[in-house]
Specification:
The protein is an alpha/beta fold and 268 residues long. The chain has a single domain (37-267), classed as TIM Barrel. It has ten helices and ten strands. The chain has helices spanning 2-16, 51-54, 72-86, 107-117, 132-144, 161-173, 188-200, 218-225, 245-255, 257-267, and strands at 27-28, 31-32, 39-43, 59-63, 90-93, 123-127, 147-154, 178-184, 206-211, 230-233. The strands form two sheets. An eight-stranded parallel sheet has the order 9-8-7-6-5-4-3-10. A two-stranded antiparallel sheet has the order 1-2. α4 runs parallel beside α5 (132-144). The longest helix has 15 residues, at 2-16. The protein is globular, with a radius of gyration of 17 Å. It starts with a helix and ends with a helix.
Length: 268
Amino acid sequence: MLHSLTVFRGIVRIIVSFNRHTVSKMKIGDIELGKRPVVVGTVSTDFNMPADAVQQVDIMEIRVDMLDVEGISDIIDIFSSVKRRYGKPLIATIRSREEGGEREIDDDRRYRIFREVLSFAEVLDVELSSGGLIEKVSGLCRENGRMLMASYHNFSETPERDVLMGLLRRGKDLGARIVKIAVHAADNKDLSELIHFTIENRDAGIVTISLGRAGLISRIINPMTGSLLTYGFIDRAASPGQISAFEIIKHLRLFDPSYNEAATSRVA
């Protein structure tokens, strides 16, 4: 990883010297987006971690499809407990099997779960490919003052630029404040393509991640070049190439002065 960091260090120096994004006053909870990298810690199994450890992440994502429980009341209890224990903004994700979910949950049940966890989760993440579900959840978010994140996952390739632009536009048309694009990188060319796409659309409200071994570095580079969020696991990896949130934090503190300043203030 450090070798890849060296390769892209020149790009980072240039981009960090730019003004941060001009995404209009977008916040998740009390976390303002676009001013510095924002780290999301994904959790699915261990909900009793020391608060001091979790304090380092900005936002927590609960992957419902990876939970050991299936009852809606049990899922609500987990969201309530995590919110009470850590006080972090929450992203509720119920990933479909087609886009990397661990178990199958039908759309009607996914909608019911989203509806029940609204009082705890500031953001609901739904796949662009989910058809009617994303339209229903978009309405749910609009009616309840929550944020919709429209997501796309491709585990085989990095699509062409026009395809990526089409995904971004479709997500925005559906009412998503944030469009998350996670695609497989076979090599540095794929990695560079997504970085350039991120830079070009840095004010559009996007999250970008290159998946797989070649894409590891994107979790550090992309949030410095326009991706509003970067994801790492807290207890168990949730996608190919995902690394620990604490590993991401360590490298961001090294390479991004604005992030290091915010992190130092948070610890103090």
